Amino acid sequence: MKIIIAPDSFKESMTALEVAEAVETGFKRIIPEATYIKLPMADGGEGTVQSLIDATQGTLRYDFVTGPDGKIVKTSYGLNVNKKIAIIEMASASGIDLIKQDKRNPLTTTTRGTGELILKALDMGVNHIIIGIGGSATNDGGAGMAQALGVKLLDKDCCEIDPGGGNLNKLDAVDVTYLDPRLKEVKIEVACDVDNPLVGKKGASAIFGPQKGATPDMVVQLDQNLSHFSDILKRDIGKDVSQVKGSGAAGGLGAGLLAFTNAELRRGFDIVKKAVKLEEITKGASLVITGEGKMDNQIIYGKTPSGVAAIAKKYKVPVIGIAGEISEDSDTIYDADINALFSISPGPIDLKQSIVNGKMYTEKLAENIARTIKISNKL
After folding, report:
1. How far is CA 345 from CA 40, 230, 269, in A?
2. Neighbours of 363 (CB within 10 A)
3. Nearest-angstrom CA–CA distance, 310 and 314
4. If phi over 0 gives left and psi between -120 and 50 gives alpha, with beta otherwise, what is residue 374?
5. What pTM does this model have?
6. Is 174 within 8 Å of 236 (Cβ atoms)?
7. Terminal CA-CA length for the chain
8. Full residue range of the structural domain in which residue 209 is found
9. How do residues 310-367 score in pLDDT, each as one tens digit?
10. 272 within some domain
11. What is the rounded distance in angstroms from the CA atom of residue 59 to the CA atom of residue 282?
12. CA distances (Å), 183 to each of 98, 257, 275, in order?
């Protein structure tokens, strides 16, 4: 029996690798003779760096960059020196969790720290950068990132504009003369799990601005400013990114990466599945186990469990899903080719207890699933 364990992380409780290890531990108590293959997964959001580090045998590096509010923050990124790959989560440098809720202001927040992380990766001699762009605090179209990489964003007096989406209306010219030339030689893959354009009713400001602290008036202002930004980009560097799918991700960071680098926007899950060789390893498997912290009807829209299940279905391998919480609309999850669904929760418990004891609960659930499989083989 060959069992593939390919979960996403359980937010604030376990990394994807820790979930996989707990499942393996529980199963081995009952079916020790099976072959277990752990493939920590992610879809471009939280945990992507860790999953890709585990998949590529890389290491986690720590450094300091400019945070979204202009203050210095400690951040991390993944690095595989031998394979010359760097893995960056923009949220670790420019993320919404780095600013207290009552201090969030997308008119002033900047992606400069994300650009500084890219520079640090270039300094390490990499030729391949993977960037996850979920969870941003920003709405600046990637302007701050571009400035960190050497781009001059100039006002009518030929002075650099100030940080934040609220200042993009002052932009008069874009000068890429001093853009870091190393970017031309580097493959950049952007893990993006939304297809929103930069501007408009489904754009970065309208859809994601409010969760970053934007009032209705600010949303209108930010959208107008991003539209102005994209017009200047089209005029000065010949790139029209305003309606490209995914260009509105992370407050328009997707657009900035497309405009100033040779980046390719891809589903985060697709990047991770390729790195861990999920499809090749799934061939010939007896069972696949996947999951994430909460299972609800959003699973069917490109989340890790549905991606894993789709590959398993291709090779006619049954799939079991596990989660910390299963929502009331869980019936729709079976439409994502997941054959059975289980919660690790042993009963009515509070969230804190569930997070703290996640590993123990997961091991116990896995043991019980293994016992059920053992019984079913005797029926």
Report:
1. 21, 48, 26
2. 20
3. 6
4. alpha
5. 0.81
6. yes
7. 18
8. 48-266
9. 999 999 999 999 998 888 777 777 877 899 999 998 777 766 777 778 899 999 999 9
10. no
11. 26
12. 27, 11, 22
